[in-house]
Amino acid sequence: MSNLTEFTKGLWDEHPIFKLVLGMCPTLAVTTAAINGIAMGLATTFVLVASNLVVSALRNVIPAKVRIPSFIVIIASFVTIVDLVMNGYFHDLHKTLGLFIPLIVVNCVILGRAEAFASKKGLFVSLLDGLGMGIGFTLGLFVLGAIREIFGNGTILGITLFGEGFYPLIIMILPPGAFITLGILLALMNKIEEIRGTA
Questions:
Q1: What is the number of structural domains in the chain?
Q2: How many CB atoms lie within 10 A of CB 149?
Q3: Rounded to the nearest 5°, which phi and psi values hold at 156?
Q4: Contact indicator for 27, 79 with CB cutoff of 8 Å
Q5: How far apart are CA 97 and CA 126, in angstroms?
Q6: CB within 8 Å of 187: residues ≥ 6 apart
Q7: Residue 134 and residue 22: Cα distance in Å, rounded?
Q8: Cα 119 from chain centroid (whole Å)
Q9: Cα–Cα distance list, 106 to 24, 25, 111, 182 (Å)
């Protein structure tokens, strides 16, 4: 597999949200607004890239019996860095995302990439994999958050899109709106794949 393919697979063919259906907890919980999706996606991307690099660098040193606990310690270290930096420099956003920042530790996208990929591949390829998966995850969260924010608040990134006559669909910023939006996006992704397959 080429380096370009390793990078781009997370953007479509192995998209963490819409293809592998991983990381559903933050996907459904924090995407009430586009900015929340971007922030969670970037935090996850940092942890994913950094943990992939460390796991890849130590893959021949970590004993097989303790590899999963070792991966969790590595991931938790980077999540702590993200949590402290966000709390110090982006306090309001940190308060909005709340518990979901520490929960990045158990995000199956990150642990899955560490176990299935970084523990078996070299540094550069692991970097590309983490970056591609992270960008794909961030884009997925942004799209989901943007759709919910537009229909639920009539805004995008805090910018008002409609006039006073707009009646928001409150359901879109509630938990059912997350499931509805995700279902529609999954169906759309499957339809595009079906069209690509017959073309």
A1: 1
A2: 25
A3: -140, 120
A4: no
A5: 28
A6: none
A7: 12
A8: 20
A9: 11, 10, 7, 21
Q: Which run of H or E residues covers position 162?
A: none
- Find the domain containing 162 and state its range: 3-198
Cβ-in-10-Å burial (0-12, 13-18, 19+) of 29 comes to: middle
Whole-number pLDDT of residue 3: 85
Q: How many Å apart are CA 129 and CA 113, to the nearest integer?
A: 8
pTM for this prediction: 0.92
Cα separation, 155 vs 129, whole angstroms: 33
Please answer whether residues 136 and 6 qualify as being in contact, where contact means their C-beta atoms are separated by less than 8 angstroms. no
Angle at 66 between CA 130 and CA 62, to 5 degrees: 60
| Nearby residues of 86 by Cβ (< 8 Å), 6 or more positions away | 39, 43, 93, 94, 97, 101
159 strand-pairing partners: 156
- Report the C-alpha gap between 93 and 41 in whole angstroms: 13
pLDDT per residue as tens digits for the range 17-67: 998 888 898 899 999 999 999 999 999 999 999 999 999 999 999 998 999
